[in-house]
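F.,

This is the one I mentioned.
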């Protein structure tokens, strides 16, 4: 094996014996267009009755980077979980791919996905619903279902900028995947895809969508069932619940900040003999620091922020500074009106905390969900430029432009 980093396609298969011999050459043909990585394929076959595993075994002498694991059929999500764990253990790849084995996902895009991963994206989504993507053979019913499902996910799950949340063609940076807890995710059906997407975003993945054409199967049948669709709806409710946990966490941190603030205020005024004027700003700064640490470690931990920790700390201070001034002024004003100092400080805290929340949520820990999706062309160009800057001589090859492409999507 070379010492290049690896990229491994996790390929779940159930009754794909006809497709595997067509797909493997198409995949491994792409390896030469991915000079930065060593390409592997790990087939997760659930003892398909059509003998998929034997077909894979037959190809292994020809393709040394083709791996196979077997299991019991427990659903697509379960197959992915097992496959990803096995790939990480065996190969420690930098990138994992999710892909279907039925030729609905064009291998010609593999090099583009890797280039985008190299350019800094943690999650590259082959998207049927961005400009340039399409589902030419979807029945009206399937298209409506898919679009409606995605609409619900985007609105209820709070990811308006992503258009294809259920796509099964993706590149994932392993490091980000390893931050995720896959255990509670839906496993039976296809809702695994959307659960995984939200879990990746929660853990800070920076996503990009690349348009794909999703043509019809020519061999075998789709395994998408009615119960998959039911599970999908139930799963949206679960995703929504996980979202509100972030808000609850913010409130808890805010409350702890109130206690820290008020606690030090009482300590300084009552035990140390400070005046209310002097004690208030000290108490405020101490609560700012503790709030930052807690919000960063818990509340916004899962947000896809792109700014550095130092910058967030500075922004948090600017926001908190403003909130602190509001807190202080409120207290002073109320003090002048003869209000009890503790009540004045408390009123300042409430107002200040509110402003803190709104501004930090929208600015300091600005989530990728409020960011416009990148234009693919621009992102690819930037990725290439960065790559060239990093390795000035070794790799000046331009990104593949689909040159050999005898196997583009129809
Ligand atoms: N090991 C294993 N076990 N593989 C499975 C199982 C399973 O229980 N169920 C499906 N697969 C494999 C199939 O053999 C195929 O390679 C891949 O998973 C996708 O299955 P299809 O049955 O072809 O799915 P589809 O074309 O209807 O659905 C596609 O679009 C969905 C969104 O519309 C897939 O890309 C899904 O991942 C995607 O969510
Ligand atoms: Mn399919």
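My design for it:
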């Amino acid at each position: 094996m070379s010492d290049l980093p690896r990229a491994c396609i996790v390929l779940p298969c159930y009754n794909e014996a006809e497709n595997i011999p067509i797909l493997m050459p198409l995949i491994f043909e792409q390896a030469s267009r991915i000079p930065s990585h060593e390409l592997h394929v790990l087939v997760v076959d659930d003892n398909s009755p059509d003998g998929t595993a034997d077909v894979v075994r037959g190809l292994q002498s020809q393709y040394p980077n083709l791996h196979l694991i077997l299991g019991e059929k427990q659903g697509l999500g379960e197959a992915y979980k097992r496959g990803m764990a096995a790939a990480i253990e065996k190969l420690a790849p930098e990138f994992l791919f999710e892909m279907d084995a039925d030729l609905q996902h064009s291998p010609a895009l593999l090099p583009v996905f890797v280039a985008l991963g190299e350019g800094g994206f943690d999650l590259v989504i082959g998207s049927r619903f961005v400009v340039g993507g399409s589902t030419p053979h979807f029945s009206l019913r399937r298209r409506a279902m898919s679009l409606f499902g995605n609409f619900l996910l985007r609105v209820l799950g709070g990811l308006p900028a992503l258009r294809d949340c259920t796509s099964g063609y993706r590149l994932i940076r392993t490091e980000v995947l390893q931050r995720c807890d896959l255990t509670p995710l839906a496993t039976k059906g296809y809702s695994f895809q959307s659960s995984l997407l939200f879990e990746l975003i929660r853990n800070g993945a920076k996503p990009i969508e690349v348009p794909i054409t999703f043509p019809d199967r020519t061999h075998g049948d789709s395994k998408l069932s009615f119960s998959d669709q039911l599970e999908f709806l139930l799963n949206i409710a679960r995703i929504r619940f996980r979202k509100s946990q972030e808000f609850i966490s913010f409130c808890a941190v805010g409350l702890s900040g109130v206690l820290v603030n008020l606690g030090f205020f009482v300590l300084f005024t009552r035990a140390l003999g400070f005046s209310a004027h002097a004690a208030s700003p000290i108490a405020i700064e101490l609560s700012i620091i503790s709030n930052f640490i807690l919000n960063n470690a818990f509340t916004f931990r899962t947000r896809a922020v792109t700014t550095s920790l130092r910058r967030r700390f500075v922004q948090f201070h600017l926001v908190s500074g403003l909130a602190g001034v509001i807190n202080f002024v409120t207290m002073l004003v109320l003090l002048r009106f003869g209000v009890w100092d503790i009540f004045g400080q408390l009123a300042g805290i409430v107002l200040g905390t509110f402003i803190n929340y709104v501004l930090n949520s929208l600015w300091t820990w600005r989530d990728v969900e409020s960011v416009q999706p990148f234009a693919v062309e621009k992102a690819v160009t930037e990725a290439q430029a960065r790559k060239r800057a990093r390795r000035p001589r070794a790799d000046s090859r331009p990104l593949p432009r689909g040159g050999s492409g005898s196997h583009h999507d129809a």
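The chain has twelve helices and seven strands.

Talk soon.
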